[in-house]
Design goal:
Shape: globular
CATH architecture of the largest domain: 2-Layer Sandwich
CATH class of the largest domain: Alpha Beta
Radius of gyration: 16 Å
Helix content: 25-40%
Length: 175
C-alpha cells in the first residue's frame, strides 16, 4: 500500500529544521520502502503493508522524536485518496494561483461546532469548506493575514492539522 506522510511545520521559516535525506533514512529504518520526498517541507510517500493510519502515525512520530529529538505531528493518507481529495475541491475554477488554494489535512473529522466557529470567524473574501478530514481554504488575499496564517485552526479550534498549497497537493497525487 502506498501512503503519504505529511509532517507539521518542519523546515518552514527556519524552524524545526530536519534534512529530508535524514528523514528518509528514519522512515527506511522502520522497513518502509520506496520512500520519496517532495520539497523540503515534510511530504513523504512510502510503501508499507496495509496498516491503520493511527499505527503508522505512532511509528513515524516515535522514530522522528528518537532520531531528531522533536515531537512532530504527522498526518497520514493513503496515496490513492489524494486524487479524490482534489476532485472534491468545492472551489475548483475559482482560484487563479496555487498560492490561493490550500488543503488542510486533519487527523480526525472536524466537529460541527468547530466548523461553525471557523465559518463565523472567516473574514470577507476567505472561503472554507470541510469535506471528510480535509479543510479546503480559498484565500485570494493570501495566507499571511488569513485565519490560516494566524493559526486560528490550531490555536482557537485546537485541531491537529497540516496544510499544503494546491501545487503540493497535486504533486502528492503523483508520488
Amino acid at each position: 500500500m502506498r501512503y503519504i506522510a505529511l509532517l507539521r511545520g518542519i523546515n518552514v521559516g527556519g524552524n524545526t529544521m530536519i534534512k529530508m535525506v535524514e528523514l528518509k533514512k528514519s522512515f527506511e529504518s522502520l522497513g518502509l520502502e520506496n520512500v520519496v520526498s517532495y520539497v523540503n517541507s515534510g511530504n513523504l510517500a512510502f510503501d508499507a503493508k496495509k496498516a491503520s493510519e493511527q499505527s503508522l502515525v505512532k511509528k513515524l512520530e516515535t522514530v522522528i522524536e528518537k532520531d531528531f529529538g522533536k515531537l512532530i505531528p504527522v498526518m497520514i493518507r493513503e496515496q490513492n485518496t489524494i486524487e479524490p481529495i482534489m476532485a472534491a475541491n468545492p472551489f475548483a475554477g475559482e482560484f487563479v494561483s496555487h498560492k490561493e488554494m490550500h488543503v488542510l489535512f486533519l487527523r480526525e473529522e472536524m466537529p460541527a461546532e468547530k466548523i461553525q466557529q471557523l465559518l463565523e470567524a472567516a473574514p470577507k473574501g476567505e472561503s472554507y469548506a470541510v469535506i471528510g478530514r480535509e479543510l479546503y481554504c480559498y484565500l485570494p488575499m493570501g495566507v499571511i493575514d488569513s485565519l490560516l496564517g494566524k493559526s486560528f485552526i490550531e490555536k482557537k479550534l485546537k485541531l491537529a492539522v497540516t496544510g499544503r498549497n494546491w501545487r503540493t497537493v497535486a504533486k502528492l497525487a503523483e508520488l
